[in-house]
Amino acid sequence: MLTYDGDMRVLSGIQPSGTIHLGNYLGAIRTWVREQHEDAFYCVVDLHSLTLPIEPAALRQNTVECAASLLAAGIDPDKCTFFLQSEVQYHPRLSWLLECVATMGELNRMTQYKEKAEKSLGKVGLFTYPVLQAADILLYDTTHVPVGDDQRQHIELARNIAERFNFNYGDTFVVPEGTFPAAGARVMDLQQPERKMSKSVSSPLGTVSLLDSPEDVIKKVKKAVTDTDAEVRYDRKAKPGVSNLLDILAGLHESTPSAEAEKYSRYGDLKAATGDAINDVFGPIQQRYATYMADPAEVLRIMSRGAERASTIAEATYRRAATAVGLVG
Ligand code: TYM
Known about the structure:
The protein is mainly alpha-helical and 329 residues long. The protein has two domains: 10-184 and 295-325, Rossmann fold, CATH 3.40.50; 214-289, Tyrosyl-Transfer RNA Synthetase. It contains 13 helices and five strands. It has helices at residues 22-34, 46-49, 56-73, 90-99, 104-108, 111-116, 124-138, 152-169, 214-222, 240-253, 257-262, 267-293, 296-325; strands at 10-14, 40-44, 81-84, 144-146, 177-179. The protein has a three-stranded parallel β-sheet. Helix 1 links the parallel strand 1 and strand 2 (40-44). The protein is globular. Residues 11-15, 23-24, 26-28, 45, 48, 133, 136-137, 145, 147-148, 150-151, 154, 185-187, 196-197 line the site of ligand 1. Ligand 1 binds next to strand 1, helix 1 and helix 7.
Protein backbone atom coordinates (compact mmCIF):
# COMPACT_ATOMS: atom_id res chain seq x y z
CA MET A 1 0.00 0.00 0.00
CA LEU A 2 1.19 3.49 -0.85
CA THR A 3 1.99 5.61 2.22
CA TYR A 4 2.72 9.27 2.67
CA ASP A 5 6.42 9.76 3.33
CA GLY A 6 5.95 12.54 5.92
CA ASP A 7 4.18 12.24 9.27
CA MET A 8 0.67 13.30 8.49
CA ARG A 9 -0.88 15.05 5.47
CA VAL A 10 -4.13 16.84 6.19
CA LEU A 11 -6.75 18.15 3.77
CA SER A 12 -10.26 19.46 4.25
CA GLY A 13 -12.68 21.83 2.55
CA ILE A 14 -15.80 23.89 3.03
CA GLN A 15 -18.43 25.04 0.55
CA PRO A 16 -18.97 28.78 0.15
CA SER A 17 -22.71 28.30 -0.01
CA GLY A 18 -23.84 30.45 2.92
CA THR A 19 -22.58 31.94 6.16
CA ILE A 20 -20.43 29.63 8.26
CA HIS A 21 -22.33 28.34 11.28
CA LEU A 22 -21.57 26.87 14.67
CA GLY A 23 -21.69 23.33 13.25
CA ASN A 24 -19.01 24.10 10.66
CA TYR A 25 -16.93 25.73 13.36
CA LEU A 26 -17.12 22.92 15.92
CA GLY A 27 -17.19 20.05 13.42
CA ALA A 28 -14.29 21.19 11.27
CA ILE A 29 -12.79 24.69 11.39
CA ARG A 30 -11.74 24.58 15.02
CA THR A 31 -9.73 21.44 14.29
CA TRP A 32 -8.21 22.96 11.16
CA VAL A 33 -7.00 25.96 13.14
CA ARG A 34 -5.47 23.69 15.76
CA GLU A 35 -3.81 21.45 13.19
CA GLN A 36 -1.94 23.91 11.04
CA HIS A 37 1.43 22.91 9.72
CA GLU A 38 3.20 22.79 6.40
CA ASP A 39 1.49 19.52 5.54
CA ALA A 40 -2.04 20.84 6.08
CA PHE A 41 -4.21 21.89 3.11
CA TYR A 42 -7.50 23.72 3.58
CA CYS A 43 -9.68 24.87 0.72
CA VAL A 44 -12.84 26.75 -0.11
CA VAL A 45 -14.58 24.33 -2.46
CA ASP A 46 -16.35 26.70 -4.84
CA LEU A 47 -16.78 24.05 -7.55
CA HIS A 48 -18.90 22.02 -5.14
CA SER A 49 -21.18 25.01 -4.56
CA LEU A 50 -22.26 24.93 -8.21
CA THR A 51 -24.18 21.71 -7.60
CA LEU A 52 -27.16 23.54 -6.10
CA PRO A 53 -28.77 26.62 -7.67
CA ILE A 54 -26.69 29.70 -6.77
CA GLU A 55 -26.57 33.15 -8.36
CA PRO A 56 -23.11 34.00 -9.79
CA ALA A 57 -22.96 37.22 -7.75
CA ALA A 58 -23.87 35.32 -4.60
CA LEU A 59 -21.18 32.70 -5.24
CA ARG A 60 -18.55 35.42 -5.71
CA GLN A 61 -19.61 37.18 -2.52
CA ASN A 62 -19.88 33.94 -0.53
CA THR A 63 -16.42 32.88 -1.66
CA VAL A 64 -14.81 36.03 -0.27
CA GLU A 65 -16.89 35.90 2.92
CA CYS A 66 -16.12 32.24 3.51
CA ALA A 67 -12.40 32.79 3.00
CA ALA A 68 -12.42 35.89 5.24
CA SER A 69 -14.26 33.89 7.91
CA LEU A 70 -11.67 31.13 7.85
CA LEU A 71 -8.79 33.60 8.06
CA ALA A 72 -10.58 35.40 10.90
CA ALA A 73 -11.13 32.08 12.68
CA GLY A 74 -7.37 31.61 12.69
CA ILE A 75 -6.35 29.88 9.49
CA ASP A 76 -2.83 31.21 8.94
CA PRO A 77 -1.61 31.08 5.31
CA ASP A 78 1.99 31.19 6.55
CA LYS A 79 1.52 27.99 8.51
CA CYS A 80 -0.65 25.91 6.15
CA THR A 81 -1.72 25.93 2.51
CA PHE A 82 -5.02 27.76 2.17
CA PHE A 83 -6.51 27.93 -1.32
CA LEU A 84 -9.52 28.15 -3.62
CA GLN A 85 -10.40 24.81 -5.20
CA SER A 86 -11.22 26.21 -8.67
CA GLU A 87 -7.74 27.73 -8.93
CA VAL A 88 -6.14 24.30 -8.95
CA GLN A 89 -6.99 22.76 -12.29
CA TYR A 90 -6.10 19.22 -11.20
CA HIS A 91 -9.22 18.82 -9.03
CA PRO A 92 -11.71 18.47 -11.93
CA ARG A 93 -9.11 16.65 -14.02
CA LEU A 94 -8.54 13.97 -11.41
CA SER A 95 -12.27 13.87 -10.71
CA TRP A 96 -12.84 12.70 -14.27
CA LEU A 97 -10.35 9.87 -13.91
CA LEU A 98 -12.07 8.84 -10.67
CA GLU A 99 -15.54 9.03 -12.25
CA CYS A 100 -14.30 6.27 -14.53
CA VAL A 101 -13.59 4.14 -11.44
CA ALA A 102 -16.57 4.98 -9.20
CA THR A 103 -19.82 3.15 -9.83
CA MET A 104 -23.42 4.31 -10.18
CA GLY A 105 -24.34 1.92 -7.38
CA GLU A 106 -22.03 3.46 -4.81
CA LEU A 107 -22.97 7.03 -5.71
CA ASN A 108 -26.66 6.09 -5.52
CA ARG A 109 -26.14 5.10 -1.90
CA MET A 110 -24.93 8.58 -0.84
CA THR A 111 -27.50 9.93 1.61
CA GLN A 112 -26.56 13.60 1.08
CA TYR A 113 -27.39 13.19 -2.59
CA LYS A 114 -30.77 11.79 -1.74
CA GLU A 115 -31.46 14.65 0.69
CA LYS A 116 -30.50 17.37 -1.78
CA ALA A 117 -31.57 15.80 -5.09
CA GLU A 118 -34.88 17.64 -5.31
CA LYS A 119 -33.21 21.04 -4.96
CA SER A 120 -30.62 20.30 -7.66
CA LEU A 121 -33.26 20.07 -10.43
CA GLY A 122 -31.78 16.78 -11.60
CA LYS A 123 -28.27 18.13 -12.24
CA VAL A 124 -25.58 15.50 -12.79
CA GLY A 125 -23.07 17.53 -10.76
CA LEU A 126 -24.84 16.78 -7.49
CA PHE A 127 -24.68 13.09 -8.24
CA THR A 128 -20.95 13.11 -9.03
CA TYR A 129 -20.17 15.62 -6.25
CA PRO A 130 -18.62 13.00 -3.91
CA VAL A 131 -16.18 11.97 -6.65
CA LEU A 132 -14.90 15.55 -6.90
CA GLN A 133 -14.53 15.44 -3.12
CA ALA A 134 -12.53 12.22 -3.44
CA ALA A 135 -10.29 14.00 -5.98
CA ASP A 136 -9.78 16.92 -3.54
CA ILE A 137 -8.58 14.46 -0.94
CA LEU A 138 -6.55 12.01 -3.02
CA LEU A 139 -4.62 14.72 -4.93
CA TYR A 140 -2.63 15.61 -1.83
CA ASP A 141 -1.63 12.12 -0.62
CA THR A 142 -3.86 12.94 2.32
CA THR A 143 -3.62 10.74 5.39
CA HIS A 144 -6.21 12.57 7.56
CA VAL A 145 -9.40 14.45 6.69
CA PRO A 146 -10.78 16.50 9.62
CA VAL A 147 -14.55 16.79 9.11
CA GLY A 148 -17.89 16.68 10.87
CA ASP A 149 -19.92 13.52 11.26
CA ASP A 150 -22.05 14.15 8.14
CA GLN A 151 -19.02 13.53 5.91
CA ARG A 152 -18.39 9.94 7.04
CA GLN A 153 -19.99 8.40 3.98
CA HIS A 154 -18.07 10.67 1.60
CA ILE A 155 -14.76 9.79 3.23
CA GLU A 156 -15.60 6.10 3.02
CA LEU A 157 -16.28 6.53 -0.69
CA ALA A 158 -12.93 8.29 -1.20
CA ARG A 159 -11.24 5.34 0.51
CA ASN A 160 -13.07 2.83 -1.66
CA ILE A 161 -12.25 4.69 -4.85
CA ALA A 162 -8.57 4.93 -3.84
CA GLU A 163 -8.39 1.24 -3.04
CA ARG A 164 -10.09 0.22 -6.29
CA PHE A 165 -7.88 2.52 -8.34
CA ASN A 166 -4.77 1.09 -6.65
CA PHE A 167 -6.00 -2.45 -7.27
CA ASN A 168 -6.80 -1.80 -10.95
CA TYR A 169 -3.81 0.34 -11.89
CA GLY A 170 -1.16 -0.24 -9.24
CA ASP A 171 -0.32 1.77 -6.14
CA THR A 172 -1.15 5.40 -6.90
CA PHE A 173 -3.08 6.91 -4.01
CA VAL A 174 -2.63 7.07 -0.27
CA VAL A 175 -5.82 5.75 1.38
CA PRO A 176 -7.09 8.52 3.70
CA GLU A 177 -9.05 8.38 6.92
CA GLY A 178 -11.55 10.79 8.41
CA THR A 179 -10.99 12.39 11.82
CA PHE A 180 -13.91 13.66 13.87
CA PRO A 181 -13.95 15.84 16.98
CA ALA A 182 -14.95 14.17 20.25
CA ALA A 183 -17.59 16.86 20.90
CA GLY A 184 -19.36 19.00 18.29
CA ALA A 185 -19.05 16.53 15.40
CA ARG A 186 -22.78 16.82 14.77
CA VAL A 187 -24.28 20.09 15.97
CA MET A 188 -28.05 19.98 15.70
CA ASP A 189 -30.53 22.70 14.72
CA LEU A 190 -31.58 24.58 17.89
CA GLN A 191 -35.24 24.54 16.88
CA GLN A 192 -35.33 20.98 15.53
CA PRO A 193 -32.70 19.09 17.51
CA GLU A 194 -33.33 15.91 15.52
CA ARG A 195 -31.96 17.65 12.40
CA LYS A 196 -28.37 18.83 11.92
CA MET A 197 -27.57 22.52 11.72
CA SER A 198 -27.14 23.26 8.04
CA LYS A 199 -26.16 26.04 5.63
CA SER A 200 -28.57 24.87 2.98
CA VAL A 201 -31.73 24.63 5.09
CA SER A 202 -33.38 27.89 6.10
CA SER A 203 -33.85 27.82 9.86
CA PRO A 204 -32.89 31.31 11.09
CA LEU A 205 -33.69 30.64 14.74
CA GLY A 206 -32.17 27.17 14.72
CA THR A 207 -28.84 28.15 13.14
CA VAL A 208 -26.15 30.12 14.95
CA SER A 209 -24.07 31.94 12.38
CA LEU A 210 -20.45 32.92 12.93
CA LEU A 211 -21.51 36.49 12.22
CA ASP A 212 -24.59 36.69 14.47
CA SER A 213 -24.62 39.59 16.93
CA PRO A 214 -24.06 38.62 20.59
CA GLU A 215 -27.70 39.55 21.30
CA ASP A 216 -28.96 37.26 18.55
CA VAL A 217 -26.82 34.40 19.82
CA ILE A 218 -28.22 34.80 23.33
CA LYS A 219 -31.77 35.01 21.95
CA LYS A 220 -31.42 31.91 19.75
CA VAL A 221 -29.91 29.80 22.50
CA LYS A 222 -32.55 30.99 24.97
CA LYS A 223 -35.28 29.89 22.54
CA ALA A 224 -33.60 26.52 21.83
CA VAL A 225 -36.06 23.64 22.03
CA THR A 226 -35.48 21.48 25.11
CA ASP A 227 -38.00 19.23 26.89
CA THR A 228 -40.27 19.29 29.89
CA ASP A 229 -38.57 17.07 32.44
CA ALA A 230 -36.21 19.84 33.58
CA GLU A 231 -33.20 17.60 34.25
CA VAL A 232 -29.81 18.53 32.79
CA ARG A 233 -28.52 15.20 31.56
CA TYR A 234 -26.69 14.01 28.43
CA ASP A 235 -28.92 11.61 26.56
CA ARG A 236 -28.96 12.20 22.80
CA LYS A 237 -31.99 10.00 22.22
CA ALA A 238 -34.29 10.96 25.07
CA LYS A 239 -33.14 14.57 25.42
CA PRO A 240 -31.88 15.76 22.01
CA GLY A 241 -32.23 19.52 22.67
CA VAL A 242 -30.47 19.58 26.04
CA SER A 243 -27.82 17.14 24.80
CA ASN A 244 -27.13 19.38 21.82
CA LEU A 245 -26.44 22.34 24.13
CA LEU A 246 -24.17 20.16 26.28
CA ASP A 247 -22.34 18.95 23.20
CA ILE A 248 -21.87 22.54 22.00
CA LEU A 249 -20.51 23.58 25.39
CA ALA A 250 -18.20 20.58 25.48
CA GLY A 251 -16.96 21.45 21.99
CA LEU A 252 -16.28 25.06 22.91
CA HIS A 253 -14.64 24.17 26.23
CA GLU A 254 -12.82 21.07 24.92
CA SER A 255 -14.44 19.05 27.71
CA THR A 256 -17.12 16.33 27.64
CA PRO A 257 -20.93 16.67 27.59
CA SER A 258 -21.29 14.72 30.85
CA ALA A 259 -18.76 16.96 32.60
CA GLU A 260 -20.71 20.00 31.37
CA ALA A 261 -24.00 18.46 32.57
CA GLU A 262 -22.70 18.28 36.12
CA LYS A 263 -22.24 22.04 36.24
CA TYR A 264 -25.90 22.95 35.75
CA SER A 265 -29.17 22.02 37.37
CA ARG A 266 -31.44 24.41 35.48
CA TYR A 267 -32.05 24.79 31.75
CA GLY A 268 -31.90 28.60 32.08
CA ASP A 269 -28.35 28.46 33.46
CA LEU A 270 -27.26 25.95 30.84
CA LYS A 271 -28.62 28.18 28.08
CA ALA A 272 -27.02 31.33 29.49
CA ALA A 273 -23.64 29.57 29.75
CA THR A 274 -23.92 28.22 26.21
CA GLY A 275 -24.76 31.62 24.73
CA ASP A 276 -21.85 33.24 26.58
CA ALA A 277 -19.42 30.51 25.54
CA ILE A 278 -20.37 30.97 21.87
CA ASN A 279 -19.98 34.75 22.09
CA ASP A 280 -16.60 34.41 23.82
CA VAL A 281 -15.30 32.45 20.84
CA PHE A 282 -17.12 34.25 18.01
CA GLY A 283 -16.57 37.83 19.28
CA PRO A 284 -12.84 38.08 18.44
CA ILE A 285 -13.41 36.22 15.15
CA GLN A 286 -16.00 38.82 14.13
CA GLN A 287 -13.55 41.65 14.78
CA ARG A 288 -10.88 40.07 12.61
CA TYR A 289 -13.51 39.26 9.97
CA ALA A 290 -14.30 42.97 9.57
CA THR A 291 -10.61 43.68 8.94
CA TYR A 292 -10.36 41.03 6.21
CA MET A 293 -13.61 42.13 4.57
CA ALA A 294 -12.24 45.67 4.32
CA ASP A 295 -9.86 44.33 1.65
CA PRO A 296 -11.55 41.52 -0.34
CA ALA A 297 -8.88 41.65 -3.08
CA GLU A 298 -6.23 40.73 -0.52
CA VAL A 299 -8.35 37.79 0.67
CA LEU A 300 -8.44 36.49 -2.91
CA ARG A 301 -4.69 37.08 -3.33
CA ILE A 302 -3.97 35.05 -0.19
CA MET A 303 -5.87 32.11 -1.67
CA SER A 304 -4.19 32.47 -5.06
CA ARG A 305 -0.78 32.25 -3.44
CA GLY A 306 -1.93 29.08 -1.66
CA ALA A 307 -3.19 27.68 -4.97
CA GLU A 308 0.29 27.97 -6.47
CA ARG A 309 1.76 25.73 -3.78
CA ALA A 310 -1.22 23.37 -3.88
CA SER A 311 -0.89 23.05 -7.68
CA THR A 312 2.68 21.82 -7.48
CA ILE A 313 1.68 18.94 -5.25
CA ALA A 314 -1.62 18.24 -7.01
CA GLU A 315 0.06 18.13 -10.42
CA ALA A 316 2.50 15.43 -9.35
CA THR A 317 -0.31 13.20 -8.06
CA TYR A 318 -2.48 13.87 -11.09
CA ARG A 319 0.38 12.91 -13.45
CA ARG A 320 0.95 9.71 -11.50
CA ALA A 321 -2.74 8.80 -11.87
CA ALA A 322 -2.94 9.84 -15.52
CA THR A 323 0.13 7.77 -16.40
CA ALA A 324 -1.23 4.81 -14.44
CA VAL A 325 -4.45 4.70 -16.50
CA GLY A 326 -2.54 5.01 -19.78
CA LEU A 327 -2.88 8.67 -20.71
CA VAL A 328 0.24 9.73 -22.57
CA GLY A 329 -0.38 13.52 -22.69
P1 TYM B 1 -19.76 21.62 4.22
O1 TYM B 1 -19.35 22.86 3.47
O2 TYM B 1 -21.20 21.27 4.24
O3 TYM B 1 -19.26 21.70 5.72
C1 TYM B 1 -17.93 22.05 6.06
C2 TYM B 1 -17.52 21.25 7.29
O4 TYM B 1 -18.44 21.49 8.37
C3 TYM B 1 -18.92 20.25 8.89
N1 TYM B 1 -20.32 20.42 9.33
C4 TYM B 1 -20.74 20.13 10.56
N2 TYM B 1 -20.09 19.67 11.65
C5 TYM B 1 -20.83 19.50 12.79
N3 TYM B 1 -22.15 19.78 12.87
C6 TYM B 1 -22.85 20.24 11.80
N4 TYM B 1 -24.14 20.53 11.89
C7 TYM B 1 -22.13 20.44 10.57
N5 TYM B 1 -22.48 20.89 9.34
C8 TYM B 1 -21.36 20.85 8.60
C9 TYM B 1 -18.84 19.28 7.73
O5 TYM B 1 -18.78 17.93 8.19
C10 TYM B 1 -17.57 19.72 7.04
O6 TYM B 1 -16.44 19.13 7.65
N6 TYM B 1 -18.58 17.98 1.07
C11 TYM B 1 -18.04 18.88 2.03
C12 TYM B 1 -16.96 19.80 1.49
C13 TYM B 1 -15.77 19.14 0.87
C14 TYM B 1 -14.74 18.44 1.56
C15 TYM B 1 -13.81 18.06 0.56
C16 TYM B 1 -14.53 18.12 2.89
C17 TYM B 1 -15.46 19.15 -0.44
N7 TYM B 1 -14.28 18.50 -0.64
C18 TYM B 1 -12.64 17.35 0.88
C19 TYM B 1 -13.36 17.40 3.21
C20 TYM B 1 -12.44 17.01 2.21
C21 TYM B 1 -19.16 19.77 2.52
O7 TYM B 1 -20.15 20.00 1.84
O8 TYM B 1 -18.92 20.38 3.69
